C-alpha cells in the first residue's frame, strides 16, 4: 500500500469517526409497543420515535398499519393470543437488545361498550371473560417470556404493563367485568415479574393511562392521548429500581392496587 492510499484511508476513518462517534449506535434504545396501530399505542410510537428511540410497533394486520409505518417504526405482525406470532417476534429480535417492552395491546370486551350500559353477573359470558384474559393478562405473560433473552441484553430493561384504575381492588364496582378483572390480573403479573426479575436489574411496573379519547375510551375520555403519553414517557424513562413492582398513574402519582 502506497503513502497516498494510506493517507486516504486515514482521512476516511477520521471522517467516519466524527460522523458516527464510537458507541453512538449502542446509545439508541429500543422499545417494542404492542397494539401500536391505533389509539394509545400509536401515540406511544409517535412520541418515542420523536425522542430518538428505535421503535418496534406490533399490529395484527401490518399491511393496514399505515399511520404506524409513517412514524418510522419497524412494524411486526403480532396477535398476543397467537403462539406462532409471539415466536416469530422473538425470532425477529433474537440477539438484539430490547430496552423497553410496553405491553399495551388491550381488549375491552363485547358485552357493552363504554358509557352504554353495565355488564352484570346475569349477562356476562364465559367466552367474553376468556377473551379478555387471553389478551389483557396472558398476552403480557407469554410475550414477556418469549422476549426475555432480548430484554436481558439491555443494560436497563423495563417492562411496562398498561393497566387501568378499573383494575384496582380499591375502586368502586366496575361496569366492565372482563376488562376490569383481567386488568386486575395484569397487576398481579406485574407483581410476579417484579419478584422474579428485579434482582437481575429489571424494572417492572403497571401504568394506568387515564381515560383517553380513543376508540376504546370513546369521546367521553377526559384526556387526549398526546397529553397523557407526553407525561408517561418521561415517567418511563426516569423510572428507578425502587419504583419497580408498583402501580403508577399517567401523571406520576402512585396508585393503590
From TrEMBL:
InterPro entries in alphabetical order: NAD(P)-bd_dom_sf (IPR036291), Sc_DH/Rdtase_CS (IPR020904), SDR_enzymes (IPR052184), SDR_fam (IPR002347)
SUPFAM superfamilies, alphabetized: NAD(P)-binding Rossmann-fold domains (SSF51735)
Keywords assigned by UniProt, alphabetized: Signal
Pfam families per the UniProt record, alphabetical: adh_short (PF00106)
Signal peptide annotation: 1-24
Superkingdom field: Bacteria
CDD domains: carb_red_sniffer_like_SDR_c
Entry-linked Gene3D superfamilies: NAD(P)-binding Rossmann-like Domain
Similarity field: Belongs to the short-chain dehydrogenases/reductases (SDR) family.
Name under which the protein is recorded: SDR family oxidoreductase
Organism of origin: Haloferula chungangensis
Amino acid at each position: 500500500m502506497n503513502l497516498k492510499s494510506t493517507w486516504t484511508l486515514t482521512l476516511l476513518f477520521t471522517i467516519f469517526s466524527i460522523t458516527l462517534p464510537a458507541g453512538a449506535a449502542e446509545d439508541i434504545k429500543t422499545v417494542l409497543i404492542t397494539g401500536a396501530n391505533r389509539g394509545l399505542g400509536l401515540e406511544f410510537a409517535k412520541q418515542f420515535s420523536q425522542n430518538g428511540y428505535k421503535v418496534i410497533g406490533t399490529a395484527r394486520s401490518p399491511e393496514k398499519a399505515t399511520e404506524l409505518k409513517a412514524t418510522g417504526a419497524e412494524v411486526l405482525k403480532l396477535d398476543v393470543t397467537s403462539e406462532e406470532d409471539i415466536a416469530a417476534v422473538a425470532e425477529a429480535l433474537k440477539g438484539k437488545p430490547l430496552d423497553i417492552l410496553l405491553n399495551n395491546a388491550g381488549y375491552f370486551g363485547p358485552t357493552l361498550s363504554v358509557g352504554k350500559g353495565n355488564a352484570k353477573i346475569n349477562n356476562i359470558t364465559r367466552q367474553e371473560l376468556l377473551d379478555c384474559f387471553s389478551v389483557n393478562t396472558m398476552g403480557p405473560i407469554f410475550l414477556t417470556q418469549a422476549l426475555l433473552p432480548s430484554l436481558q441484553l439491555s443494560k436497563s430493561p423495563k417492562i411496562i404493563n398498561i393497566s387501568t384504575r378499573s383494575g384496582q381492588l380499591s375502586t368502586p364496582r366496575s361496569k366492565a367485568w372482563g376488562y376490569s378483572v383481567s386488568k386486575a390480573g395484569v397487576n398481579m403479573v406485574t407483581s410476579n415479574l417484579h419478584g422474579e426479575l428485579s434482582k437481575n436489574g429489571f424494572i417492572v411496573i403497571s401504568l394506568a393511562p387515564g381515560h383517553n379519547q380513543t376508540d376504546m375510551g370513546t369521546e367521553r375520555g377526559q384526556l387526549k392521548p398526546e397529553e397523557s403519553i407526553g407525561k408517561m414517557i418521561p415517567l418511563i424513562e426516569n423510572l428507578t429500581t425502587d419504583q419497580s413492582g408498583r402501580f403508577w398513574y399517567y401523571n406520576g402519582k402512585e396508585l393503590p392496587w
